[in-house]
Amino acid sequence: MMTVETKPDITTRPATEFTVALNPKSPEGPLEKKWDNAKFQYKLVNPANKRKYTVIVVGSGLAGGSAAATLAELGYNVKCFCYQDSPRRAHSIAAQGGINAAKNYRNDGDSVYRLFYDTIKGGDYRSREANVYRLAQISVNIIDQCVAQGVPFAREYGGLLDNRSFGGAQVSRTFYARGQTGQQLLLGAYQALSRQIGLGKVAMYSRHEMVELITIGGHAKGIVTRDMVTGKIESHVGDAVVLATGGYGNVFYLSTNAKGCNTSAIWRAHKKGAFFANPCFTQIHPTCIPVHGDYQSKLTLMSESLRNDGRIWVPKKQGDNRAPDQIPEAERDYYLERKYPSFGNLVPRDVASRNAKEVCDEGRGVGPGGLGVYLDFGDAIKRLGADAIREKYGNLFDMYERITAENPYEVPMRIYPAIHYTMGGLWVDYDLQSTIPGLFVIGEANFSDHGANRLGASALMQGLADGYFILPYTIGDYLAQQKAGAYDTNNSSVAEAEFDVKQRNKRLLGIKGKRTVDSFHRELGKLMWDKCGMARNATGLREALAKIPEIRAEFWENVNVPGSADELNQALEKAGRVSDFMELAELMCRDALDRTESCGGHFREESQTREGEALRDDEHFAYVAAWQYDGSNRPEIMNKETLDFEYVHLAQRSYK
Q: Smallest Cα–Cα separation from 466: which of 430, 438, 434?
């Protein structure tokens, strides 16, 4: 670790940048009035005319499911697509710890403004103020909506909704349903969606994967899908397209995401003209079960909520391999409590992750390979009793024991950081519209609300805010200015998009190489983790940028994709997704190399304070990097959206 505060090197900037003036369309007026002002100024679609419009929604998780249900409830015709066998299989179901809302039920000083401030600060001052304040405002409505749907949030003895704390906050604002909050919220959205399916307002297409975006006259008007059971290629057109397809963490191969999570939908849109914002901003989650084998296919998350009652520590001595109960209290280093007394174990995810890596790099890690730290509930069990801990976290403890064969009621959990969430995504303005008119992007698929680091329990908040409360207003403003059905299904753009998909599949199936798709994905993922993971430096990023094209070239010469395109073919699905990951990986490394500051989850080793904390460079990097596709084999063009901070003053983050 460097001990001298250094200034970033700014000589790696692209020669071509700032070619497009990005307008975030933030409304006028005081911060607390911007959303109200915008809603009043939006053009409206007459209720009788809404049934003339068709909206395509890709994705059925919290963002997509809530958007499809709400748009249909308003009267629009909706086509909703997911690649799972049911909308209930969306990866939102895996979220564990909770959902934030500024209700201040605990009367502990919370407010809409404090949630706004914590989110801006937690994202290391790399997000747009207007969007984040709107998210904080809407958070209070989300809980009421979900309670009305019957979501079984945890309650206190008297019947009031319970709250707990999460990293990056000193108040209790996280609503939860044990360790299965995402599942319960998704069931709420799913029942609303199912009602609209039953009424005929939503046409649901399960096991259909979006493989191309259709643009007509410069506007997004449809998608090309592949039926994952029959292999049939189909085109679907409408008046607007909404992408709610999640993040791209699986570019690293090992991540906490479901194996099917991918980047293809937003990457296809990117190559059709949608700018990709801050691709290097990926989140490392500090509370994951450590890797336990060379051929492990994914990682399992342990909810951040466990840090409320679990204490994180490692031995003070290097190479101390004694069992945890044999290490006396005086020989333990509760390093987060020692370094960050104000927040302790509840520092934000990026801070907790980097510190875990630091102690393991020092040789004080625990478990096989020394890549782990203890998350110890011994004190909490003594203080509260095992039954109280079981009530809060029982299903998480059971999951941990099934995977590790260790009982966390008796021995500490072992955890290590892992790739989790992606703050980068398609660039959108305040209306959640991308640089392609008519293409709206919601949830984790866009970049809008979390800056360089997402606070825990804010993903569910953003997905439901976008789907239930924001998009229904903003997409109406767009549709009100478009003639309903103003597209021709026989347009040449539709045929061209289908042709491109079929040619891509034909090429993949015709290579007949010797390596599996997974072997390429695993190689790419390890390279990304080593060179663009928890810590990045110029040398490693340049090595990755030299190696990725070599992996990609071999992929297109030596991958083996068996079967045909006209049948169920999971190898073909994977091949298409991995080919997109390879292109995205190169852009991620280029973005990381260009941003020579450290901020949030993006930690450049050349830019850190004397204490080893992330050192921002606000003079040169207080902007959103929005990358523009410029054709195959040509460098992407970087455009900027300058971030202005009128209400939260830029300051070096401190959680001490």
A: 430
